[in-house]
Amino acid sequence: MKLLVTGGAGFIGSAVVRLAVARGHEVVNLDALTYAACLDSLATVEGSPLYQFEQADIRDRAALDRIFSAHQPDLVMHLAAESHVDRSIDGPGDFIETNITGTFNMLEAARAYWSRAGRPEGFRFHHISTDEVFGSLPADPEVLFTEATAYDPRSPYSASKAASDHLVRAWGETYGLPVVLTNCSNNYGPYHFPEKLIPVIILNALAGKPLPIYGDGSNIRDWLYVEDHADALLLVAEKGLTGRSYNIGGENERSNLELVQSLCAILDRKRPKAEGSYADQISFVIDRPGHDARYAIDPSRIRDELGWRPSVTVEEGLERTVDWYLNNAAWWQPLLARQGVGQRLGVKA
Ligand SMILES: NC(=O)c1ccc[n+]([C@@H]2O[C@H](COP(=O)([O-])OP(=O)(O)OC[C@H]3O[C@@H](n4cnc5c(N)ncnc54)[C@H](O)[C@@H]3O)[C@@H](O)[C@H]2O)c1
Fold it and tell me: Whole-angstrom Cα distance, residue 253 to residue 185?
């Protein structure tokens, strides 16, 4: 099968590309190479005859038409997006243009290609989205996001993703484009850009810097190991029902403070400090404006209908992630020089 993956040089997209190629699929990676992209994350597939790269911007409709015609994909996995909530607070414009207009362009280019090809049965447009479109949950552990939860986005990032989800559903209903959607919880794992929470904590700990925790650290997220997510995405792309959406979660709720304490305990074992614990470096900083209190996914639809469950517990996943950062400084070191990395973002309100 030939997949057109957008955003394949990003964190989740690169995991999808690596796994798809390992499973024998042909992959065309379409990516604009923004600040968040890293082609080094694709070093293991770069030389494969199954892999091709197209540098293109999803805001450029003509480029998309050319790429669809040139590669004739069997299905599309659309991950390209501006993805960092803090950056969306500082500069929402890019989020509107890429996440909304860019998705509109992808839908139109896919629709034109699919119509020209005689509406082939198996074609699928898989839109990858976030649980942040559902807003914020109360603390009650019985209350979870399901596919029927009403949309209630609260940041420029989640609002732009919610808009893109609505466009995808509308193209399915109005034009019959075979679409499928997924909304997933917070991902973590190898190749995570070093401005996101988990890499920031690991790298600041090793550098002897403060470990910043927004507010009081009580915000809860449902952590999903990125390789498990890539596996779920390929399953939905191939077997998910057209017109349906699937929530994907890790069944691993942790408060930010608990998560950081776990990372410190792992580092204390693997790379002990001369004196004291890495937890001594924890520093509470001013909260993110509009910081959602809790996200947690009810994954029963993907489990019951497609038989998917996460394979990695958060304890195992964090161990693997810490090991990966300890052993791969050559990957993350150059990224520390990129614009905004290492600075506090998203405090304008
Ligand atoms: N990271 C998470 O925890 C998470 C959780 C839920 C959903 N998601 C969604 O998954 C997708 C991938 O997330 P990620 O964390 O890998 O993001 P990322 O920021 O690591 O990667 C995004 C990729 O998209 C590319 N891109 C950005 N703008 C583009 C444009 N205009 N044209 C072409 N390419 C462009 C970037 O160059 C980058 O390679 C996003 O749609 C995001 O909303 C992410």
Answer: 10
